[in-house]
Design a protein that fits this description.
The protein is an alpha/beta fold. It has six helices and ten strands. The strands form two sheets. It has a six-stranded mixed β-sheet with strand order 6-7-8-3-9-10, with helices on both faces. The protein has a four-stranded antiparallel β-sheet with strand order 2-1-4-5, covered by helices on one side. The longest helix has 17 residues.
Length: 215
């Protein structure tokens, strides 16, 4: 379970005030809001990339408010995907595992598992990301964020540059990932239509406050 208690943060013209949020494990949750309302700022605060002014952040029964990003065991896919263009698909998936000190057999097994889960088997042995489509890059970014089995996966406008058919395909994949990996997903979008077709719960960020539901 992910829980925010009275989280407040001011950054420039963005002011988030006394945000309360509770997300169940293994669920896909949608955060809806207009551009510039603070959705990305909230994700960065959850990751530990932005220092909050007040409040508390809990993951399961552990308070993570003061932990570093690496200590929080969260996965984050920003809008630009943050893939390593100079590395192969396999190296992108293995990067966090290498840094964490996993053994070579464990890394190989996890990369194979992620490749199958995200339907990347035909692409994993390529030497670079040249020629990867938008959907393939999105799946690779998801795999990299999932590599260390995070408790919470944060997605910032993951389908913004994709066509409707591919959005639907990847949306179904996200629901499967939430249940199969038992990871809680919080996905940001500004599209009400997208929010309506996805999500076990829906939240709106308006005027610095969180509200439940789509309307």
């Amino acid at each position: 379970m992910i829980r925010l208690e009275k989280l407040s943060l001011s950054l420039g013209s963005c002011h988030l005030r006394d945000l309360d949020l509770e997300l169940e494990r293994g669920t896909l949750n949608i955060l809806l809001g207009r551009s510039g309302c603070g959705k990305t700022t909230l994700l960065e605060a959850l990751c530990g990339l932005r220092k909050i002014d007040s409040g508390r952040i809990w993951c399961d029964d552990e308070e993570i408010t003061s932990l570093t990003p690496a200590q929080r065991r969260l996965g984050y896919v920003p809008q630009d995907l943050a893939l390593f263009q100079a590395l192969s698909p396999r190296a992108n998936l293995a990067f966090a595992l290498d840094i964490a000190g996993w053994s070579r057999p464990a890394i190989t097994a996890r990369v194979q598992e992620l490749s199958a889960l995200l339907k990347l088997e035909a692409l994993i042995e390529r030497k670079s990301l040249v020629g990867f489509s938008g959907g393939e890059r999105q799946r690779l970014a998801l795999g990299r964020a999932l590599a260390l089995r995070p408790r919470l996966l944060l997605l910032d406008e993951p389908f913004a540059a994709l066509d409707p058919e591919l959005r639907q395909e990847l949306g179904s994949m996200l629901r499967q990932l939430a249940r199969q990996e038992q990871v809680t997903i919080l996905m940001v979008t500004h599209s009400r239509a997208e929010a309506e077709t996805l999500g076990d719960s829906h939240w709106r960020l308006e005027n610095g406050s969180l509200k439940t539901g789509l309307v």
